[in-house]
Amino acid sequence: MSALEIGLVLIGFLLPLILLGLHIGVALMLLSFIGVWLMRGNFDLATRLVSLTFYGGISDYIFATIPMFVLMGLLISVSNVGKDTFDVAEWALRKVKGGLGVATVLSNTVFAAVTGISIASAAVFTRVAVPEMVRHGYQPKFAVGAVAGSSILGMLIPPSLLLIIYGVLAEESIGRMFLAGVIPGLIMALAFMAMILVVARLMPNAVVVPGHQSRIEHTETIVSAARKLVPLAALVVLVLGGLYSGYFTPTEAGAVGAAGALVVTLLRGKLNGSNARQIIRETGYISVGILFLLIAAGMYSRMLTMAGIPMEVGRLIGELGLGAYGFLAVYVLLVLLLGMILDSTSILLIVVPIAAPIAKTLGLDLIHFGIITVIAVEIGLLTPPFGISAFTVKSSLDDDKIKVETIFLGAFPYVLIMLAVLALIALVPATTTWLARGLM
User: Fold this and answer.
1) 109-148: per-residue pLDDT in tens?
2) Is the dihedral of CA 268, 244, 125, 190 positive or negative?
3) Given pLDDT bands bounded at 50, 70 and 90, which one contains residue 190?
4) What pLDDT was estimated at residue 116?
5) Burial zone of 311 (CB within 10 Å; 0-12 exposed, 13-18 middle, 19+ buried)
6) What distance in Å separates the CA atoms of residue 327 and residue 76, rounded to the nearest whole number?
7) Is 298 in contact with 170 (CB distance < 8 Å)?
8) Terminal CA-CA length for the chain
9) Element (H, E) at 183
10) The whole model's pTM is what?
11) Half-sphere exposure at residue 161, Cβ-oriented, CA atoms within 13 angstroms
12) If 159 and its partner were Cys, which of 116, 171, 322, 329 is the partner (CB 3.0–4.6 Å)?
């Protein structure tokens, strides 16, 4: 067998191994090891590749970004900043039809700017927004759909763990990836809010239980609302302002953000011995898991290059005459299908090492390509049967009457909006590259 044939056979084994329960990182490393061994006919060379990958795979300073932003997100999640943000948005939109749905999206948008983890957003706002919406007569399906749908903003609006992982895999600047996510994230958030307002006006029974009359009373004032938003606004300005002005590197921005989140959590009296240990433990679990996956992806990428797979696939696309947009259409469809059975990180690890070199050969900007990839991957968080955001909402709910099927149905309009925004961004690259190329 040729090196190309060996590589293709091993790729064919990858998905079945994952579906059988083998950890994605272990599967990538195992198949990469076997691939190098068979292609070069040298067991010692394959062993040396493993050791070199482990030693050099995550030794770069930039990888410290991951635990810093994870720690910041977890600290913010326990500080009640999310609840305060929702309270202020609820007060500001209390007279708007569907206002609590818009408040949920708006809160998730702001919260995303300091967490970078969709699952954290889903967990926080399930506990904060869903009970409040149900209490005021909103349909349960609409309530859980709004939370699940808008939670994906945490992986698009910077800082975002998926943008960091893509930047590492595609060897693109993480700072530029963060900048590239700003405009698409805002477009997505505005599209979600517009959809809620239109549905609330044209199909009010889909939003509010028929015949229910509820007035949202608040004792908030402009001063008290502003006071509640100060901690979050300060963190956003500190982290993103320092990063985009060039004053901080992404790693330094993560460290400053984690320190700022710690101060906020301490000042609010939300940190104690028990949850401090849990936060440190979860930071370690999440960070080590991601870093191990990146090591495995590095080895997988080397094996693919050795087999010549990206070059061969690129040549095949050229012969078929698909062009850049034809390739994008096929690629997005593949990612959407994978999103139904795999988690976001696993999809990136599998497809980016193959697709990024091809995209570059076809003249696509890898930053633009990265945002398209992340949006397509994020749609998988809302689609059955895997749909991890939907399952996070379900596990965070204190209501057995709401089934996971209800959450998927409630989130479906958001999937349609995401597909429309994805098409817009694919056709208008400037939505991603204007800030990324212009400011850095």
Assistant:
1) 887 777 767 777 777 778 778 888 887 788 888 988 988 8
2) positive
3) very high
4) 67
5) middle
6) 40
7) no
8) 46
9) helix 174-202
10) 0.82
11) 29
12) 116
